[in-house]
């Protein structure tokens, strides 16, 4: 099988030949950050924004990046070119780099860019909507896309046991924040609500807010779990899932168990925007 070509610390190498030193702080301490995006028509979608978020994540965990935005952009484009994929998922990862004592950064982080084919979710998720569960978890440094997805992995396993597709984090105040890898939105009539604090600023979320602003009243505020029964529609967003309608949260059924009209409008707008 042909191995994908990835970028690692200055070289474009076959995926099975890429090696990190075992004392890299990403491996032994989970110290690192990443970003994730996809292409539409072969072009990385919102690459500049994803690189900006990567840089912000690095800042938030105290990791200084020796590469400029333009350098990261070029490396990403080159990795893409090496792989000849119709559409690609792109993962840009920065780890703390090798450390002599396994805890002190030496100021030489590792950079890798991994490109894989886009895999689509089942069409029925979009046509019929999905079930999600909630879990009482708050992410550490939520505005950073750090390498720590321990809670996410556990919560997703839990979701799968009840045929749910995503798990939403609920904080100690009882507010629904976001999913393990998605942002969360609800409609109350024509009011579109989404949390602003305690979440990762999704790039898809930003696009949705921009597309929605002339059609709906946007309210960026916390969403109480106890108020979910007053919602007419709900959906989650991410670079891979785009807009996925939610028709069940735990035992609560939303919008008569089928995707709502306003959500459908946003799904159409998003498809037109991303693919144009
Ligand atoms: C915790 C979390 N929230 C939200 C998102 C959605 O972000 P984006 O729309 O940029 O993919 C992600 C993406 O993986 C995520 O990990």
From TrEMBL:
Cofactor(s), names only, from the UniProt record: pyridoxal 5'-phosphate
UniProt key word Disulfide bond: no
Gene Ontology terms describing biological process: amino acid biosynthetic process; carboxylic acid biosynthetic process
GO CC, one annotated term: cytosol
Coiled coil residues, start to end: none
GO MF annotations, alphabetized: lyase activity; transaminase activity
Keywords, in A-Z order: Aminotransferase, Lyase, Pyridoxal phosphate, Transferase
Family: Belongs to the class-IV pyridoxal-phosphate-dependent aminotransferase family.
PANTHER family: AMINO-ACID AMINOTRANSFERASE, AMINODEOXYCHORISMATE LYASE
Protein name: Branched-chain amino acid aminotransferase/4-amino-4-deoxychorismate lyase
The organism of origin for this protein: Allocoleopsis franciscana PCC 7113
Species classification: Bacteria, Bacillati, Cyanobacteriota, Cyanophyceae, Coleofasciculales
């Amino acid at each position: 099988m042909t191995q994908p070509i990835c970028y690692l610390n200055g070289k474009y190498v076959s995926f099975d030949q890429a090696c990190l030193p075992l004392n890299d702080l990403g491996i032994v301490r989970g110290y690192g950050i990443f970003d994730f995006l996809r292409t539409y028509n072969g072009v990385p979608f919102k690459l500049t924004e994803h690189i900006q978020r990567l840089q912000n994540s690095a800042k938030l965990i105290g990791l200084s990046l020796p590469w400029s935005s333009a350098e990261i952009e070029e490396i990403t484009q080159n990795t893409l070119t090496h792989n000849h994929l119709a559409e690609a998922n792109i993962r840009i990862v920065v780890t703390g780099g090798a450390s002599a004592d396994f805890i002190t950064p030496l100021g030489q982080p590792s950079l890798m860019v991994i490109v894989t084919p886009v895999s689509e979710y089942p069409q029925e998720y979009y046509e019929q909507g999905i079930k999600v569960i909630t879990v009482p978890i708050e992410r550490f440094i939520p505005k950073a896309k750090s390498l720590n997805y321990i809670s996410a992995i556990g919560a997703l396993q839990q979701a799968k046991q009840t045929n749910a597709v995503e798990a939403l984090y609920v904080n100690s105040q009882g507010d629904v924040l976001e999913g393990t890898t998605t942002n969360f939105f609800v409609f109350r009539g024509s009011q579109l609500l989404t949390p602003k604090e305690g979440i990762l600023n999704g790039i898809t979320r930003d696009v949705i807010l921009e597309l929605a602003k002339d059609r709906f009243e946007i309210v960026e505020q916390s969403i109480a779990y106890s108020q979910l029964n007053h919602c007419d529609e709900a959906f989650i967003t991410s670079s891979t899932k785009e807009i996925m309608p939610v028709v069940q949260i735990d035992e609560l059924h939303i919008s008569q168990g089928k995707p709502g009209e306003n959500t459908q409008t946003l799904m159409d707008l998003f498809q037109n925007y991303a693919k144009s």
